[in-house]
Amino acid sequence: MPSADARYAVPSHILRILRCPRTGSELKQEGEELVSLTDPGTRYPIEGGVPRLLVEADARSGS
Question: N or C: which end of the chain has fewer CB within 10 A?
Fold first, then answer.
């Protein structure tokens, strides 16, 4: 059985075009979250393999 990271890995060609809706920066994947490169505290969950890039879904941001 694949690990959670492998099961929910966002394909690199998709990750290259996604941007943080709050900062506009590129995103990187850390486990089951996408993280803003300019503000690592801004994180978005990956739910069932689908990135949820909604500002209100960003539960870990200080804003």
Answer: N
pLDDT for 27 equals 97
Distance, in Å, from the CA atom of 34 to the CA atom of 46, rounded to the nearest integer, reads 7
40: left (phi over 0), alpha (psi -120 to 50) or beta: alpha
Question: Across residues 6-35, what is the average pLDDT?
Answer: 92
3-state secondary structure 22-51: CCCCEEEEECCEEEECCCCCCEEEEECCEE
Structure tokens at 28: 């990187």
Rounded Cα–Cα distance for residues 37 and 25 (Å): 6
End-to-end Cα distance, the chain: 37
Q: Is residue 41's pLDDT more than 90?
A: yes
